[in-house]
Specification:
Elements: H1 2-35, E1 38-47, E2 52-57, E3 60-61, E4 65-67, E5 71-72, E6 76-77, E7 86-91, E8 101-107, E9 121-125, E10 131-135, E11 140-145, E12 148-152, E13 157-161, E14 164-169, E15 172-176, E16 181-182, E17 185-186
Parallel strand pairs: 4-8
Antiparallel strand pairs: 1-2, 1-7, 2-3, 2-4, 5-6, 7-8, 9-10, 10-11, 11-12, 12-13, 13-14, 14-15, 16-17
Length: about 190
């Protein structure tokens, strides 16, 4: 009699156990997909021609995925990431293939620290060392590449090549340096 009751209970409970096991598998799949939705990664290689990069995250690598640009409409700007740059991987499809993943680049890291720590400055440093910055507090724009620099404020503009250059302000043009030459004729004191 006990065996018959045990078989009857088992027969009634078996579909519930199967359903619980199916739900457990589905929950595990959803957990795994959720973990893969947003991840931090490091750009490993860039194909500038296609606007795609391979990104490493943990022990894994993405296939070649698209990366964000500062803007990509009627007004657009190109800024390709660098190998070693940290990024945020957004897997908007939640799948494993990476086919619906994009990389949001520009997260400062040890390899590429913040270009400025001033809250009043917007600064860009280029690959060759040239730099531009705008200080919102002083209203000053600066651009420099090697010995050449340009500084512009609301009151004046100064262009220097080393120690030689000129400045413009409301009073006129001011030449800086020991010599001023006009069309091959020296017009300053040596």
């Amino acid at each position: 009699m006990m065996d018959a009751i045990a078989r009857m209970i088992s027969a009634e409970v078996r579909p519930l156990v199967d359903e619980i096991l199916d739900l457990r598998t589905e929950i595990e799949d959803l957990r795994r997909r959720t973990e893969n939705t947003i991840r931090i990664g490091i750009v490993e290689s860039v194909d500038a021609g296609s606007g795609r990069a391979v990104v490493g995250h943990g022990d894994l690598k993405t296939p070649s995925v698209r990366y964000f640009m500062p803007s990509a409409g009627e007004q657009s700007e190109t800024r390709h990431p660098s190998a070693g740059e940290q990024c945020l991987l957004l897997n908007f499809g939640g799948g494993d293939s990476g086919a619906q993943t994009v990389a949001l680049c520009g997260i400062p890291c040890d390899a590429f620290p913040l270009p400025s720590t001033s809250p009043d400055e917007t600064r860009r440093i280029y690959k060759d060392g040239a730099a531009s910055s705008y200080d919102h507090a002083t209203h000053a724009f600066t651009w420099a590449s090697g010995p050449l620099s340009v500084t512009a404020t609301r009151e004046n503009v100064e262009v220097l090549l080393g120690a030689v250059g000129f400045a413009l302000d409301a009073t006129g043009v001011h030449f800086l340096g020991p010599l001023v030459d006009h069309m091959g004729k020296l017009i300053s004191k040596a």
